[in-house]
Amino acid sequence: MQIIRSIRSMQAAARKIAGSGKTIGLVPTMGYLHRGHQSLIVRAAKLADVVIASVFVNPSQFGPGEDFKTYPRDEKGDIARIAEALGKKKARTAIVFAPKAIDIYPDDFETWVTVEKLSQTLEGKARPGHFRGVTTIVAKLFNITRPDVVVFGLKDYQQAMVLSRMTRDLGYPIKFVIAPTVREKDGLAMSSRNAYLDDLGRWEATCLYYSLRTAREMVRSGVADTRVLLREMKAVIKATCPSANVDYIAFTDFKTLKPVKTVTTGTICSLAVRVHGVRLIDNLKLA
Ligand code: AMP
Fold this sequence. Notes:
Blueprint: E1 2-4, H1 7-19, E2 24-29, H2 35-47, E3 50-55, H3 75-93, E4 95-97, H4 101-104, H5 122-126, H6 130-145, E5 149-153, H7 157-169, E6 175-179, H8 199-204, H9 207-220, H10 226-240, E7 245-253, E8 267-275, E9 278-285
Parallel strand pairs: 1-4, 2-3, 2-5, 3-4, 5-6
Antiparallel strand pairs: 7-8, 8-9
Helix pairs in contact: 2-3, 6-7, 9-10
The structure holds adenosine monophosphate.
Adenosine monophosphate (AMP) binds at residues 29-30, 36-37, 39-40, 152-153, 155-156, 179, 181-182, 189-192.
């Protein structure tokens, strides 16, 4: 596996791969990799000849007072997990692109990419400027690595939708793949931020998935009114994690992200909850 830190070297390597007729599968990450990330890497390896995993904690997608400084980092562990996911043969040709923040954002950096409307709701509303940072870094990664395929996780559902729109709108010739959420045995969606939780917090963090599963069960038994679902989800969260702070619970159309009052085919429920001070997000398709 090759570790590349400079933008120029990454561009040269990508040109070389393309020149030899091979395809590139890109998996952008912020590191501290877990099985969720590994599943994306495995998927990329199935769809492309060479896998590039980027590891970059992107400062521009964190708001003031958010966890940029404390975000967990473990480059050695990340490299080991990428190798583990790929197996010996694919790992030999894989590239980890781990640029420096100063190279990605030089002091006079002033060009941003924004997906205007889709970025304004849910996570965008709760974290102003977040998606501008995400779309800008991912556009830069696309330009630097020239992938044929990219794989993102459904765990960050809105992010996947925003980036898929950006990919289409800007005309990138890239196949855009969204992979399912990988969960712990008790249903908690894997996340690098789970590392912030202590034992009790880790246990109570199941409140997100329990509430989503409750909503899905209710939908399956005939309830379609989102007000009823919302009430029940809040009750489940309160019962599982009494100190939880619900940031939002939203019922939207999967493709348009527009809010819905009644659950129909394609309705997805997304939520953000603070568990013992740690902000967690999750989502589930309800029908
Ligand atoms: P992050 O490192 O958190 O920025 O995530 C990098 C990529 O991994 C994004 O496309 C995420 O949606 C995806 N991802 C994060 N957690 C999971 C998970 N539990 N299952 C599947 N994909 C995930």
